[in-house]
Each structure stands twice: as C-alpha cells, then as structure tokens.
UniProtKB/TrEMBL annotation:
This is Trans-1,2-dihydrobenzene-1,2-diol dehydrogenase. Belongs to the Gfo/Idh/MocA family. It comes from Branchiostoma belcheri (Amphioxus). Gene3D superfamilies: Dihydrodipicolinate Reductase, domain 2 (3.30.360.10), NAD(P)-binding Rossmann-like Domain (3.40.50.720). InterPro entries: Gfo/Idh/MocA-like_OxRdtase_N (IPR000683), Gfo/Idh/MocA_domain (IPR050984), GFO_IDH_MocA-like_dom (IPR055170), NAD(P)-bd_dom_sf (IPR036291).
Length: 334
C-alpha cells in the first residue's frame, strides 16, 4: 500500500517533534515530501535537517503541490484557522495542531468547509490516540472503578516568558495552550456528555491573557470534573478518574505511558527518538499519525476518536471559560 505523503506547515518546534515521531513509523507508510514556512531559509534548514525533498517560503506554494495526501499544520494558534482554510480550499486533508482555532466561530467555519468539500480534517489532540487512553476507556467500561463520579486534572508550568503564551495578539494564555488538555481529558472520560453547568475562576496576566484558571464541569448524576491550568507555576501534571469502587491515576496524562489502576500499573513505553525533541514524550505523536493514515485509507472525513463534535465541545467550553476570566482576542471581535 502506498505511503501517506505529508506536507508540513511551519518549521517550528512542534513540527520538529512530529517529524521525529513519524520517523518511528515505517517509511513505506509515512513520508514527508514538503515543508513550508513564512521564511524560506527556515523551511530549507528544516528540510535539510529532516531529509525532506522540497522547501517553500510560503504556505500557498505547499497548498498548490499535487503529490501531498495530508497537511500537518504546526503554526501558531492564530494561523490555524486561515491556513487550514487555505489547505481545505486547495482540496488537502488537514491535521491541525490543537487548539484547532482561537474560538468556536472559527472552529465551526473550518469544520463546515471540510464537510462541504468532503475532506478529512482533524484537530491534533494527540493525547486521545495514546494506548493509555484506550486502556482507560477499557477499564471504565469494564466496571472496575464502578460509576465514575469525579475527574480531576491539572496541567501547568512556568512558561509565562514564552511569547506565544504571554502575548494576547498571539492568542496566548493558559487555556488554549494547556487548558485544552485537561478539558479534553474530562470530556473523554464522560463520553462527550454535555455538562449541566460550567463554573470558571481565574486571574489575568499583566498582558491580558489567562494566567491561571480553574474550570469545574458539573454533570448529571452528581458527577463533576475539577480542572486546573496554569502558565506561571509548576503543578503535578496528573489526572485522576474516581469511581464508586476505585480510582485511576494517570501521570503525565497529556502524553501518558502508564495508568495506575486497582489491578496494578499498566505500562505502554514509547519508542526512543532518533533526533532531539522539544517536548515531553513527543514520539507519542506517532499514534495520531497512524490514525490519520487509517482514516484516509477508509475514506473518512473525521476520526471517531476525535470527532468534529468533540472539537466543537472543547472549543465551546474554552470560549465560556475565557469569557468569565475576561480574555478577549481580536478574532472574538470579528
């Protein structure tokens, strides 16, 4: 079967890690044939480092290349919607980094365009495709923890000095960068059920973005999720699923290699990287790449593990949370 031919938008840190992750998969299944950046030299350097045959100094050139099966978008948040739109209009399937958009309005437009043109489009919530997440779902469905009554998750670090995180003009803040992970975890555990109520509290940074936020999702049947994201302090970075019989602990829940359950610790080690990584456990991005290939081969326009509806639900929760804390982006005014 022919390899899935990838085109990369952006030659930044996350694109580096995704390419290293792809390199852990068989070359007859995944190949990167082109990379585009806003600066040609950056694209050329990336191409040289990663043995990619073609480099472009504009995204439009990559959109026009014929022999690309899917485009990976690793640009900054504010570029996700316009570049995804460009690629979908060019007939290219898209895997777009999380968050797929700055707000729900953009997300609805992007998904609408993909459906209108019958083209595959997925938000790269890479956590959802880890073997640990499959194991969590299996344990919950088996009844081993009883009825799930509570989910807690926290994610943060002192990253407030990074421009794309601290600048409002770049859609910075803890929610879009970190909060999406705790929110997607809770919505996954509760099966995409709509919360009855969303309670948010938080603090703004001097730059007008959310520095620290707590979100409480209240579900029917006396169930809750208590979530924390923070860009100015080091937190535990773990999640718990609490049931009437037992609980699960998931260290590094956004890129986990183990789940600690009533019957012991289930481990799912990752392959080692062949080149340096910028972020923790990034070779785990291989799992979302495998899912993209499967979906393309089966002619799907969305993945059942990360559906368009799931992305819209997460975007909606983040919209509500940002509104309460008082974060307004330029894209919200359009």
């Amino acid at each position: 079967m022919a390899p899935t031919r990838w085109g990369f938008v952006s030659a930044g840190k996350i694109s580096n890690d995704f390419k290293v992750a792809l390199d852990t998969l068989p070359k007859e299944e995944h190949q990167v044939v082109a990379v585009a950046a806003r600066n040609l030299e950056s694209a050329q350097n990336f191409a040289e480092t990663h043995n990619i045959p073609t480099a472009y100094g504009s995204y439009a050139e990559l959109a026009a290349q014929k022999d690309i099966d899917v485009v990976y978008i690793g640009a900054i948040h504010t570029q996700h919607a316009p570049v995804t739109t460009m690629m979908l209009q060019a007939g290219k399937p898209v895997l777009c980094e999380k968050p797929m958009s700055v707000n729900s309005r953009e997300a609805r437009q992007m998904i609408g365009l993909a459906k209108e043109n019958n083209i595959f489009f997925m938000e790269a919530v890479w956590s959802r495709f880890f073997p640990v997440y499959k194991k969590i779902r299996e344990i919950i469905e088996s009844g081993a923890v009883g009825e799930v009554k509570a989910v807690t998750a926290c994610f943060g670090g002192n990253i407030s000095h990074i421009p794309r995180v601290k600048e409002r003009s770049m859609a910075g803040g803890s929610l879009l960068d970190l909060g999406i992970y705790v929110i997607q975890f809770a919505t996954m555990v509760f099966g995409g059920e709509e919360p009855e109520d969303i309670t948010t509290s938080g603090h703004l940074s001097d730059g007008g973005v959310d520095e620290i936020v707590t979100v409480v999702l209240k579900y029917s049947g006396n169930r809750m999720a208590t979530l924390l994201c923070c860009m100015s302090a080091v937190v535990a970075n773990e999640a718990y699923v609490c049931g009437t019989k037992a609980s699960l602990k998931i260290p590094n829940f956004w890129c986990p290699t183990e789940v600690i359950s009533p019957d012991g610790t289930h481990e799912f080690p990752l392959p080692p990287p062949e080149k340096p990584l910028n972020f923790k456990n990034s070779t785990g991005m291989r799992y979302e790449a495998m899912e993209v290939r499967r979906c393309l081969q089966e002619g799907l326009i969305e993945s059942p593990l990360m559906t368009h509806a799931m992305s819209l639900q997460i975007a909606g929760i983040m919209d509500q949370a940002r509104k309460v804390v008082g974060v307004v982006y330029d894209q919200d005014k359009e």
